[in-house]
């Protein structure tokens, strides 16, 4: 019985150590992102924000206008979720490198499409030239729970190789919709 008590304590200690590690990494990420900006840029941003908030308080947009705009955005979001079947549950972004004309960010995204859950992890490289900004996706990693479907596994592998997120989302939407129809049909016959 004493071993069980010790094991419970050891498990709790390990869980707390992992939580401390995650919080430390998150803190370092925040510190790293804040060091990318000079004091001048931070002061400019603060002054710009103050001007914007002062302008809003002078009556440029009333609270009722903002509430109506928010309700409109929520309606649009609800429509898009019903149309596509996508519901994103979490997103995190970490800036890995930032220079004047180049930014590398690591994104983690998870969600559901109809009844299928997915997780994405990728790096986004944005290069800014004089006229345009170009973006390139690399290190794409997709995790899905469609274990027994080899066709979907092959598709996910090809998307990961090409880094084509648009094709993934279009195909996942259609696949998940029909997957849900098949699931309901088989439940009906059981």
Considering DSSP H and I runs of 4 or more, what fraction of the residues is helical?
55-70%
Strand order, main sheet: write it out: 1-2-3-4
> What is the number of helices?
5
Q: SSE order, as H and E?
A: HHHEEEEHH
Number of domains: 2
Characterise this structure.
With 190 residues, this protein is α+β, with helices and mostly antiparallel strands. The protein has two domains: 1-53, no CATH class; 85-189, no CATH class. The protein is 61% helix and 26% strand. The protein contains five helices and four strands. The protein has helices at 2-35, 39-60, 63-84, 150-162, 165-189; strands spanning 86-98, 102-113, 116-128, 133-144. It has a four-stranded antiparallel β-sheet with strand order 1-2-3-4. Strand 1 and strand 2 (102-113) form a beta hairpin. Residues 6-33 form a coiled coil.
Keywords summarizing the entry:
190 residues; alpha+beta; 2 domains; 4-stranded antiparallel sheet; CENP-P; Centromere protein P; coiled coil
Break the fold down into its secondary structure elements and pairings.
Elements: H1 2-35, H2 39-60, H3 63-84, E1 86-98, E2 102-113, E3 116-128, E4 133-144, H4 150-162, H5 165-189
Antiparallel strand pairs: 1-2, 2-3, 3-4
Protein name: Centromere protein P
Pfam family, one: CENP-P
Coiled coil: 6-33
């Amino acid at each position: 019985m004493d071993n069980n008590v010790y094991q419970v304590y050891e498990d709790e200690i390990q869980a707390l150590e992992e939580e401390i590690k995650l919080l430390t990494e998150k803190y370092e990420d925040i510190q790293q992102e804040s060091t990318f900006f000079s004091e001048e840029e931070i002061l400019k941003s603060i002054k710009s924000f103050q001007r914007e908030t002062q302008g809003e308080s002078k009556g440029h947009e009333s609270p009722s206008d903002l509430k109506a705009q928010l309700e409109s955005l929520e309606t649009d979001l609800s429509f898009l979720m019903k149309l596509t079947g996508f519901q994103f549950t979490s997103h995190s972004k970490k800036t890995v490198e930032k220079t004047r004309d180049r930014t590398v960010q690591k994104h983690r995204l998870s969600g559901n499409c109809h009844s299928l859950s997915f997780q994405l992890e990728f790096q986004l490289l944005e290069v800014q030239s004089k006229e345009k900004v170009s973006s390139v996706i690399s290190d794409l990693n997709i995790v899905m729970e469609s274990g027994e479907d080899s066709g979907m596994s092959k598709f996910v592998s090809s998307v990961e190789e090409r880094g084509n997120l648009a094709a993934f989302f279009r195909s996942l939407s259609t696949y998940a919709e029909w997957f849900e129809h098949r699931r309901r049909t088989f439940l009906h016959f059981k």
